[in-house]
Design brief:
Blueprint lengths: L2 H15 L10 E12 L3 E16 L2 E5 L3 E8 L7 E8 L12 E10 L4 E12 L2 E13 L12
Antiparallel strand pairs: 1-2, 1-8, 2-3, 3-4, 4-5, 5-6, 6-7, 7-8
């Protein structure tokens, strides 16, 4: 079994079993926006609205399908581990050659109430593209807590 097959198998089992107690579970479909500023010699700004982000989580590791695919890790709050914390994500194309572009790292603050099916993700990212760099502010709300079976990065 390859690494990517193992990840898919684990994520499928999570869909059946759910997340362990005490974990910050971000599984579900999230709707929101990100507002970005880019610099490539000149400054430009844009907003992507109604962006859908699908997350499937196994333990503290999760896969994200959106406009791009990401892998991530949830970091539960010490006092409220099931409802609050942070998350870190990396775009699947992130590598150590920033001149090629495709690199993106994301930090999100998370609040989730799985019983009510509600949640918020807010944070920021930095990304590269050939000839430039950008930053984004992210803001998403949980719209469906069901497992969307996101695949994310092949070697999550």
């Amino acid at each position: 079994m390859t690494g990517s097959q193992l990840v898919l198998c684990v994520l499928a089992l999570v869909g059946l079993a759910g997340s362990p107690a005490g974990a910050l579970d971000l599984t579900g479909t999230w709707l929101g926006k990100h507002t970005c500023t880019e610099y490539d010699g000149t400054l430009s700004k844009f907003t992507v609205k109604d962006d859908e982000m699908r997350i499937t989580q196994a333990g503290d590791v999760f896969a994200v399908d959106s406009q791009s695919q990401f892998s991530g890790v949830s970091l539960p709050d010490a006092k409220k581990p099931e409802t609050q914390g942070e998350a870190k994500l990396a775009n699947c194309t992130t590598d150590n050659v920033t001149s090629n572009g495709g690199d993106e790292l994301v930090r999100l603050s998370a609040k989730v109430d799985r019983e009510k099916g509600k949640g918020k993700l807010r944070g920021s990212s930095i990304y590269t593209f050939p000839g430039g760099v950008g930053t984004c502010k992210w803001s998403y709300k949980l719209t469906d807590p069901a497992n969307p079976n996101a695949v994310g990065c092949a070697d999550n």
